[in-house]
Amino acid sequence: MSQAVKKISRNLGLGGAALIVAVIALLVVRRHNRTEPAAFATYAGSASCRDCHQTAYTEWQKSNHGLAERQLNPVMDQTAFPAGKFQVTARGPGATNAAFAVARVIGNDPLRQFLVPFPGSRYQTLEASFDPHATEWFNVYGTEDRQPGEWGHWTGRGMNWNNMCAACHNTRLRKNYDERTDSYATTMAEMSVGCEACHGPMKNHVVWQKAHPNQERDDDPTLRNFTPTQMLETCAQCHSRRGELTGNFAPGDLFDDHHLLTIVDETDLYYPDGQVRDEDYEYAAFLGSKMHAKGIRCGDCHQPHTAKVKLAGNLLCLRCHDGSNTNAPTIDPVKHSFHKVDPLYFDPDGIDLLALGKRSSVAVITNGGECVNCHMPQTVYMQRHRRHDHGFTSPDPLLTKQAGIPNACNQCHADKTVDWALSWTEKWYGDKMNRPSRSRALTIASARRGDPAARDGLLALLVTNGPPYWNAVAARLLENWAGDPTINAALTGAATHTNALVRANVARSLRDETVLRRLLADPVRSVRFHAAWALRANLPDDAELRAMVDFMADQPQGQMQKGALAVARGDAPAAVAHYQKAVDWDANSAPIRHDYAVVLSSIGSNAAAIAQLEAACRLDPRDAEYPYKLALAWNELGKIDKTIEQLQIAVRLDANHARAWYNLGLALNSVGRVSDALAALKRAEMVNPADPRAPYAAATILARLGRMDEARAAAQRALRIQPGYAPAQEFLQSLR
What predicted TM-score, i.e. pTM, was given to this entire model? Predict the structure, then answer.
């Protein structure tokens, strides 16, 4: 038995069976390592760049990219482990404290996390992290207490390095997950974000340069020049919230060929104006910005090898906004910001900014007058990491008041009211505040609330001339109206958009099988994936779709996806097995419980479905959808009292839940509470005036009560909503 396996077994207290699994996993890794180097044969390693590119190499070596992942270093890590013993005491799988050996470090500044080896060739990321500035340990979850068994606990899959961290902290990583053994054989071309993570494999270049030491760069046939957009998409592979399609992105590749970008949608991951809310990173917000639309790319502001900004403070912004660049409006920071001017004498690299400002007649401003503090507000993630929003939005207190979108004014002036901030922005900027981005954000906020009035605004946004990102957002949000012929026609038109992100989100929302089958042949993989997924019930087992689904099988969401695929193809036992595994891996996820319940209900396992829905209600008691679905499940079992009880909870949680009001009306009518039933149906009709079912149901009740004029009026309302609605037509005919 290897010493590594013995060490793991001692740390985790593994029994015989688990120990055998650990041994097998280690042997798999060793066997894989003997064959995997062939995939990295064209990589030379960052050290091969040093002799010819000394300055760039030195800058990179001490950067956050160069130190993205590394082995423990007695010098660098002595403040974190002053005793020189690289181990921590933490709660393990058995919920008891144990000593765990630390293997590696990920991250550098402003925080460092540590990796612990686990069975199955896993590495887990500790919640306990180290702040090198404050010289103190802290919990990345703050005051949240994650328990062993939870997805987000450091022993869970949410903190698994192989899936969650490794690809962005290393160069050309291969995850190599084996679903049969639930183990990994993860390898990489080079630990940390090396030169070739951005420049691509360079072994041929190194060999050619050695053979032709006196040749000019332009003569080197091995070099490939990337466009600014290709460089941006290389950054985006890590600086974005996205799903993985292949795990095989290489510099120069198309981002959308390997990833599914998370954008503003019906969830709260982003704010309706595009600002990041959850840990979304930079890329999607940047795609929706005016800066991206004007051709700005990462390298215009950031040094390529240090990743720091090229100039401190407003000097960076005024490289373009000083009147010398005709593509950018001229900005006088003092007049524009209405904030105090405060000279910044030196930036962190020792440049005398005051002297530089005098030479260039540029005011150097910090705090309230600093451009980025208004247009790139910061959010703190992982307790210590302040990140600038890259949407380049403008603070708008009106959006805060009407849609709960944060504004930079009140983020700084936390002691002031939103109305206070609104009065000042209106005084300073007047009608300029009523910009198109405001109406766009309000439309999106309205669509998220399920407001039928948002439909026309989204239709207009779908064809707006501007950043295609927002056309994609409109396409995604129009899914709620996908059955509408007008919406279907608009989405069909957008299916030929030149931007792949737009086409991909059209494929997610469209219900037209003919158009979707055409998108199966799209040149971009993400578009093909969404089209194939939409057609999964009527599509032969597609190798590309299957490979994409299999790639994420090591996470609960991946198992849910496999379960949904099995449902679509009529394989109920496989679907149940995948959903059960997803629940086992993330038992505290209400959405997983909900989706599992839907599957169980579809195969007649209503009692089991109820158990899952009750768990979902306990886990997230604020979501109206869970008691609504629980009510439907109780109704299947004929428990009308429990049905009514849960529907009442649903409408109390969400007064605009039209389906809950409609079903509540039917349920109340079934027990003779006719007045209450009519009131519920009236509310359903008010909340969703586009659905003919509520007025039709009311018509049938009114007819039984002998209130024929009211019954006819209700049925006629249903027909005005949907001309040709057969139940209402037949009902009126019967009255004649």
Answer: 0.88
